[in-house]
Amino acid sequence: MPKNTTDENVLLTKIKSKRQELSNYLRKTKPQNTRLINSSIIAGALAAAITAGPGVGGEGFISSAKSMVSFGVPIWQALCLAASALSVTAVIANGMLKSNGLAAKISKTQLCDAKLEGLETMLELRQIDTKQALQLYTQQLTEISHI
Fold it and tell me: How far apart are CA 101 and CA 105, in angstroms?
């Protein structure tokens, strides 16, 4: 029986260590994901707003904008350049989100952490034997190969 308790303690230590690693990953990745989403939304909305002004207001908008701001270049040109830059920013942010698959990785990590928490609790309360717990633990590790 002492060997089983030792094995159980080793597994509990590994689970706690892995959960800490998952927590660190989420602490770093979630804000990055949020920044990319917010950048995409804000840049896209601003690009739309900048192009809507001349589109809806026509010459009246252009004349009003000229009197408020002087860039040394035609106002329509400045608006087009700003809208293009914001559109490119939105596209890049979206591309980074999709290519990195951050949302899916975050979701998998959170799910794995919840499962490991349940496994940890079952082990601490001796509701599962060590061999079965080890199988579940290794199964969970395959779900988070990105970490």
Answer: 6
